[in-house]
Amino acid sequence: MSISALVLDFGGVISKTMFETHSLTERELGLDAGTLTWRGPFDPQQDNLWQQMQAQQISERDYWLQRSFETGALLGEQWQSMQDLVRRARGNNPMDVIRPQFLNAISAAKNAGVRLAILSNELDLFYGADFRAKLPFLADFELIVDATYNNVLKPDAKAYAFITEGMALDARECLFVDDQQRNIDGAAAIGMHCHQFDVLNPQASYATVLDTLGVKS
């Protein structure tokens, strides 16, 4: 059965991670360069909270909530959610942090007739519902499933079923891309083709995605 749909996580797959844009965040918040030291996958040994998340001791939502609390405290403010961090750090010009490799890849996939979908655990929870209006490429996606509203989180099999049922596809017709191993495991368990996105090398990851789809860039 051939692959006819590309299903992407949002997070680090479509946008640059918060780890990659510390300098931008520091500038936007008026913090000294080098203030933000947590680096997640870019320096996991120095980020104990990230290690806890990878060990599934805390959720991804827990990780970012704590980082939001900490960052707000640096400004003498009591932030209540990840959305506070995202809005203050990158809310005005979100296209600035969208990966160019992603834009090139979805253009090639779309031109080749590949159907496009997003499966996110917290798209609007983290970014805010009005964030989508600032991202014109979302119009190219046939289906966007966001657990902000249904509260069914990857790697629950029901999360992936929202995609297959919503697009009337067999799981084997989907290529799922995510940067978290547990979410890849969940998709593989229901029969989806998978690629674990490498935030350390987005160019190579998207090359692999297009190669798996049989699409030329």
What does the model show?
With 217 residues, this protein is an alpha/beta fold. Helix content is 44%, strand content 11%. It contains 11 helices and 5 strands; from the N terminus they run E-H-H-H-H-H-H-E-H-E-H-H-E-H-E-H. It has helices spanning 11-14, 22-29, 48-54, 60-74, 82-90, 100-111, 123-127, 147-150, 157-166, 181-189, 202-213; strands spanning 5-8, 115-120, 143-146, 174-178, 193-196. The chain has a 5-stranded parallel beta sheet, sandwiched between helices. Strand 2, helix 7 (123-127) and strand 3 form a beta-alpha-beta unit. Helix 4 packs across helix 5 and helix 6 runs parallel beside helix 11 (202-213). It is globular. The mean pLDDT is 95.
In short:
Helix 10 (181-189) links the parallel strand 4 (174-178) and strand 5.
Which key features would you list for this structure?
single chain; 217 residues; alpha/beta; 5-stranded parallel β-sheet
